[in-house]
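By way of example, we now present a protein record of this kind:
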Amino acid sequence: MVTLNVNGRTVEVDSSPDTPLLWALRDDLKLKGTRYGCGAGMCGACTVHIDGQATFSCQMTVGDAEGSEITTIEGLSADGTHVVQQAWIAEQVPQCGYCQSGQIMRAAALLAHNPQPNRQEIVDEMSANLCRCGTYPRIIRAIERAAQEG
């Protein structure tokens, strides 16, 4: 058993400490918003916040996550009213939508640490997350909107 702090709750998962956090979130805790994309830390679909930092959950083990504050897309806002989520809707960002939870989590972490990023800072930070539909211009506009409205 490993004890985790997920979305403000203390939970126990019946996983080996070397299990990727992604699988504990999805399989043990049924938090399906965190997506499996590549399993190699190259796409960002599995991005969550670990102590406020955008982190690939496929690359972190539950043992390494123990003692940290973990926030998933489900914990970002219970009712979908986080400024980034609202900007995503306003800018009509999603196309297929698969990468969006990871994109939103990375964008929220960026704005939490840099409330007024310039366009290049947004591009640099968001380059860690891939969108196979190519909605990058809308992603950038949504982050700029969230920064203005935040």
